[in-house]
Amino acid sequence: MFKLLPCASEALAILSPAFDKLFGYSERSGFHFIILDPASKRWEVEEDTASAILLEGFLGSNDKKHDYRKIALSKAMQAWRVEMPNAFIQSFAPALIEEGDTPYAGSFVYNGLVVAVSGLQPYFDGLVSMWIACTIQQVRQHHRQRWIARHPTEDFFS
Question: What sections of 59-121 are H helices per DSSP?
Fold first, then answer.
């Protein structure tokens, strides 16, 4: 069938030219990304959040000014906790901010898929998070449609 991890990798490859262009535009040249597995249940992995990570990595070059992985993970956990981008939490629901949360925005939630980015300006981190989340969903949709076309008599995914 169409597994999520390969779809996430495909999405990053599709977006690679846009990332390169953005690095020049934003005057920062890299970011750490974290994609959470939507099949993970927050309440089952609260002590082991690393097990909820579907894919993560650093793209571009790292200026090492901050621990971008730690910041991206905090953004992802904020978004996962309340099921909305952490920019929304920080701007419109500050009562949901918890001790240890990062003050930086830069995550996106799209139909259960949480993506967080750190390393660019927070508004570009949010943009890249949105690009990644939306592209993963559409790559998966593409594979779903192709499966349906190849299996016209099947009643269930296999």
Answer: 68-82, 86-92
- Distances in Å between the Cα of 48 and the Cα atoms of 43, 77, 99 are 10, 12, 18
Read off the amino acid at residue 35: I
Residue with tokens 């971008």: 68
**Residue 85: closest CA among 67, 104, 98, 57:** 104
Question: What is the CATH code for 4-41+50-149?
Answer: 3.30.450.150
127 vs 121: CA distance, rounded Å: 10
Kindly state the tokens that stand for 157: 């995914």
Specify the pLDDT at position 1.
Answer: 65
In the chain, domain spans: 4-41+50-149
Q: What is the largest CA-CA distance in the chain?
A: 55
pLDDT of residue 34: 98
**Is the confidence at residue 117, as pLDDT, over 80?**
yes
pTM over the 0.70 mark: yes
Give residue 2's pLDDT. 76
